[in-house]
Description:
Largest sheet: 5 strands, mixed, barrel
Low-confidence stretches: 1-12
Oligomer: single chain
Amino acid sequence: MADAEQGTHREFGERLLTDLIERSAELKGRLVAFGQSSRFDRWLTPLLLEAAGPERRLDEDEAIRIVDHFILRYCLPDGSAVVDRFVAGRKDLTAVDREMLLGWRDPVEGIFEIQRMERNAVVLLNLLDDLEYRTYSNVGRAAFRGVSKGDFLHTCLVPVHPAGGAWLVSGVMSSYPKSSATEIAQAALQLATS
Length: 194
C-alpha cells in the first residue's frame, strides 16, 4: 500500500475509533440508567446494601464498581445480564451498537502497569494475564491525567468493538504510583487467586 493510501486508511481508522468511543459514552450512560431503573431494584439494592455493611456506608467508587459489575456481569434469574436485556429491548440500536454492547459482557478486570502513554490512549500491561491493552476513556484523555509510565491502575476494561483491539475503561479506575510496586504485586496475586 502506498504511503498516502496508508495514511488515509489510518486516518479513517482513527476517525472510526473516535466515533465508536464517543458513541460508547452515550450507550454506557443509557445502560447505567437502565440498570439503575426500578425494574432491577430487587437485585441491585441488596448488592449495594451488602457492600455498605452494617454502618450503611458505601463510598462512591465502590458503588460505581458494583453497578458496573451488575450491568455487565451479574446473572439475572433467567441467565441474562442487564446488558443483554438492554440490547434486546432497544430497537433503535445499530448492528455496531449491539456488537459493542454485547462485547462488554466479557470485561477484563485487573491490575495494570502503564507501559506507555500515547496521544489519546495508554498502553497497559495486565499483571494477571501478561497481555497488553491499548486503552481509551470515553471521557477523554483527562481520565489519565496524573498517571505516568510505570504507574499502576486497578480497573475494568471492555472492548471498544469486538474485533478492534482497542479497550475502554469501564467503571472506576484507581491509580497507584510505581513506588508501590511491591504492594501492587501482592494485590495482583490475591486477585489472581480469588
